[in-house]
Fold:
Amino acid sequence: MSLFDQVPAVPPDGTFALVEAYRADDHHLKVNLTPGIYRDENAKPWVLPSVKQARAALLADQSLNHDILPQLGHTQFLSAARQLAFKDTLDGRFVTSIQTISGTGANHFIASLLASHLHPKAVWIPDPTWDNHQGIWRHVDPGIERRTYPYYDENTFGIDGDALLSTLREQANPGDAIILHACAHNPTGVDPSPELWEGIAQVCEEKGLFPIFDLAYQGFATGDVDNDAWAVRHFTTRSSGNNNNNNTPLEFAVAQSFSKSFGLYSERVGALHVVARTRDGAAKVDGVLKRISRAEITSMPAFGARIVAAVLHDPVLEAQWRQDLKTMSGRLASMRKRLYEELVRRGTPGRWGHVLTDIGMFSMTGLSPEKVAAIKDRFHVYLLPNGRLSFTGLTEGNVEYVAESIYQIVV
Ligand code: PLP
Structure:
């Protein structure tokens, strides 16, 4: 008998389990199209040249010590992170920024802050979404309802904007939180148009919702960090009273990850920014976030934050980094084109045009969970069970094999 006999048996995490299965698979043609982790043209991890240079300089710096960081995190990192998200849109706004354990930690901190002090009845999560949104909110407070709002329309491979807006308008309650993917939506690769973003902002204002932007792929949608921050900056500026709308300015949060944009997957570099209407509100948020951080982490890890700060505070390295983003997004775009060509060349049943117009790392293939299982078993090609394909694992060397495998499975 153990005290833990009564603990529920938790099934393994689906994504990690697939990665393990892929590792254990010894088929010579296996292809991993599951992870949201950038791979180079040989399907190998890629260290960004800008990161490599900043890292080398840091390691060569004999004066570098290992003192603890300030409570909010690495100061230059935080100023650069804030600038990257908001640029010059923060006039008249009061923002609290804290370093976090990557995007996951930022999502977790804001969930903790809201759950313990604003007590939302529900959090609205797009359908579909990154699995961990459910997991984080369940973990923080299982008492907060996790409701989904319609997002992806499988028939059009686009967003069902009307359903999205009407669901929120009719069913959300004042004070509810809503998670919004700032760009390069995971898993669909489809983002709202500027008009739809305006509609979403308006519903949030009308209903008194608290938006949480999940900004995990800045630079991956268009290759340009400023274009990719459009939605975040739109919320900031429309809330500053510059846009002639009479609604109370929104307060909202941005959960920012540097895993993808800097290729720093293992360093866990992130930030949470909370935009408040008043100085006093921002000061209170500052206090609560410091308390959460103290209780959970005490102090954030420094190395990854130092790399990001070094890149973003050096014009030459920053220019290189912007080029690195173009290299990554460009490779993914060219793999989209190649897969599309190979699918169409074979006359693969289905509509594939969205593969070209989707953005970021992912597209939905429309393959059912059964077909996803079949393509894994027969061809050793790994996708997520919801049919999401990550272009990061596609290369010139395997794209024809992948297209042929999809063809064989759907024909
Ligand atoms: N948000 C989204 C939408 C993601 O897809 C991911 C990672 O896949 C994250 C947040 C968090 O990633 P990390 O904790 O590595 O920054």
User: Anything to note?
Assistant: DSSP finds 15 helices and 13 strands in the chain. The radius of gyration is 22 Å. The first strand starts at residue 31 and ends at 32.
